[in-house]
Amino acid sequence: MNEVLKTIKNRRSVRQYQAEQIKDVELTTILEAASYAPSGHNCQPWHFTVIQNKDLLNLMNEKIKEQMRLPQHEWANKMGESSRFNVFYEAPTVIIVSGDETASSPLPLAGTNFHYTPLVDCAGAIVNMMLAAESIGIGSCWLGLVNFFFALPETEKLHIPENYKPFFAVTLGYKGEKVIGQLAPKRKTDIISYIR
Ligand SMILES: Cc1cc2nc3c(=O)[nH]c(=O)nc-3n(C[C@H](O)[C@H](O)[C@H](O)COP(=O)(O)O)c2cc1C
């Protein structure tokens, strides 16, 4: 199997990290890969906020868990109440991926908003980032739970550029011992139809 296919198949959501920070050169490689993702009309409507500040990550974790404990988020209550659960899995680097809400293209498709797809474009950038990370031996996990934080006024602390909306976070770090070599969750198989 070629290296790209191996990387795609070996990447897992990593939920245990070593405390050691990743190297700046590794971080740059991963971010550069993100920036090479395709985007609608080549808008490249993404912004990456790199957080390597433990105090800020601890604050975000606490605030998110506070939200997860609220009765209206029943599905998340258990995780919010667990003292062992850390939303970022103690990863030393967390990247917030935000999309430019004002990005526009000269070619709107009639009656749709399909020419402008920052959320989709950012998702592509995240996948590039995670595959690049895996290819250089760094673990990552895509985080939707961080959206609990984006709803709070403390989001100001992230200094997201004006008109950009934070969508997701990605954790980065060297993999913890327990997760090295972990197997992929079973893949659905009945997902393809052919018209030939
Ligand atoms: C949009 C999105 C949001 C996700 N949010 C979280 C999250 O908040 N926490 C988490 O541990 N994993 C999160 N994941 C990771 C998925 O749980 C994971 O990709 C899935 O279980 C398949 O496992 P794999 O990535 O190892 O193939 C998210 C994935 C996606 C695509």
TrEMBL record:
Keywords noted in UniProt: NAD
Record protein name field: Nitroreductase
SUPFAM superfamilies in the cross-refs: FMN-dependent nitroreductase-like (SSF55469)
GO annotations of cellular component type: cytosol
Species: Pectinatus brassicae
GO BP, one annotated term: 2,4,6-trinitrotoluene catabolic process
Domain Nitroreductase: 8-174
Pfam families xrefs: Nitroreductase
Alphabetized InterPro entries for the sequence: Nitroreductase, Nitroreductase-like, Nitroreductase/BluB
Taxonomic placement: Bacteria, Bacillati, Bacillota, Negativicutes, Selenomonadales
Gene Ontology terms for molecular function: oxidoreductase activity, acting on other nitrogenous compounds as donors, with NAD or NADP as acceptor
